[in-house]
Amino acid sequence: MNHLSRLLHGRAGRGATTTLCAGALLAGTAVALSPAAQAAACTGQVRYASSTNTLYLTSGTNTLSGILQLCPSAPLVKGTGSGVWQLNATLVVQNGATLRLHGTAAGGDVDTLRLRSAAGGDPLRVSSITAQYGTIDIDQVKITSWDDEKNGPDTDPGVPSGGGRGRAFIRALSYLDANGVARESRMDIKDSDLGYLGYYAAESYGVSYKARGCGIETQDVCARLKVRGSQTGSRFHHGYMGTYTFGAYGMTFEGNEYDNNVTYGLDPHDDSDHLKIIGNHAHHNGTHGIICSQRCNDLEIVGNTVHHNGVPPHVPPGDDDPTDNQVHGIMLHRGVTDTVVRNNHVYDHPNGAGIAVFDSSGNTVTGNRIERARYGLRYSVGSTDIVSTDNTVSDSGQYGVFTYKGSDVPAYTGTTGRPGRLTFTGNTFNGSKSDAFRLNDADDVTFRDNTFTGTFAAGPLTQRTTGTVIDAGTAPSSLTYRVRGDADTAGSIAFRNLSGTVSVQLDPYSSATFSAGGLTPGATYKLTAGSRTVTTGKANASGVVTLRAQGDGGPAAGYRISPA
């Protein structure tokens, strides 16, 4: 059993679902904490500003014991021989200093660190730890907010009226100094447990990483400034967010658990690039399990287990109509590029998609297993050049695949909002409670060598969609393809390598082409719809014939190519 498992009182491995109540979070909550001695002012690497109740670690590497030795009157309280500490102040790590928080099993002095989080929201009585051009190194430690009156974690992430802070938090902040020099921070968290942290305010979401000054209007800053770190083998739970990044670079998130957070489980946000998100367990969060949003590129999202997020969905402040809130297992949102989503197991997202791509391009979705989502794969708002291969999508609440334009304005994929150049190859779709797939307002979508099996309430439906290609694959003979257009956008679909009969319904604005190969060059073949001959044509020199049908709004018919 690893140390994190011992911290969590013997909970099962990564796949287990564990919810610890506030009273059970900390072993031995009745530990007596000795008040800090009243002594001389701080010396050496530590200083204290009583007006803001802030401790500063200004150089070198230090521990809680070291800080207390240099500043005996600091608002930092050590338990009696228990490895339990309580921080009753803001702690800032600056000027390249390092704060080392290591458990006793890792050779350190702290097994549990309580961050005071008093009711009322008084910033002087709600603690935080910030690396601001510094490093926070956490190994085999349990960190939690702490309400002394309740003798337990602060379970309320709200900000009281007139309050300045909602709940204790921890963060790493990078910035450019007055001379434009990058002052970067990092935070590494290993085999630890961080819970009941954060509230709804910038940089205060619980566990946060931020490159200050980086943004959509300041991409030059983003190119020069990063925030760094890693998270491995740890649990992030009951926070406002499990973890949030902005401007992160080269971080690894591996073997962690993100659960029971108010909003996101893991949220790499703007300009967080070259991240490895591997083998994590994200579940029972209020919104998306894993989301990467706004200009994130070169991500690897691999081997994660993501389930039961948004059940029910979180209702954000000011949301007057939560009925349309969709919560996804994994989401790529706005300007995410060159990213691979591979071999993840995503299940039980009845309010959204297993995997969703929004206003993003050039990504690969492969080898994932998706079960019981409202939509298995959802690509929207201009998403283009998405390659989807070897996924298994089962028991979709509505559609196995769903594309749509939406009302949001795309910022990174052109101006039309129409998804396009999407390819689905070698996937298996096992049943859905509505259409097998639905393509709304899309262009150039290709399905090649896919398998449709199980029970579908209805066959595929395309609406105002052009250039759809169905190339080989297998599907129940009862499946009917419905193609619909309108006066502005004609619907079109092409069936390639046709063998046997395919059932198609075309409205008056739509057309379909049917191709068959392995035929006699120069021989004449006919396209029939039921008993009616639609058209005839000759096979080309390669033995391929392509015949076209224009829709008339009639009922579905079985289309077939045979010798004339």
TrEMBL record:
InterPro entries reported for this sequence: Beta_helix, Para_beta_helix_rpt-2, PbH1, Pectin_lyas_fold, Pectin_lyase_fold/virulence, SCF-Subunits/Alg-Epimerases
Pathway(s) it belongs to: Protein modification; protein ubiquitination
Family matches, as Gene3D superfamilies: Single-stranded right-handed beta-helix, Pectin lyase-like
SUPFAM superfamilies reported in the protein's UniProt record: Pectin lyase-like
Signal peptide: 1-39
Keyword line: Repeat, Signal, Ubl conjugation pathway
PANTHER family to which the protein is assigned, alphabetical: F-BOX ONLY PROTEIN (PTHR22990), F-BOX ONLY PROTEIN 10 (PTHR22990:SF15)
Protein name, per record: Right handed beta helix domain-containing protein
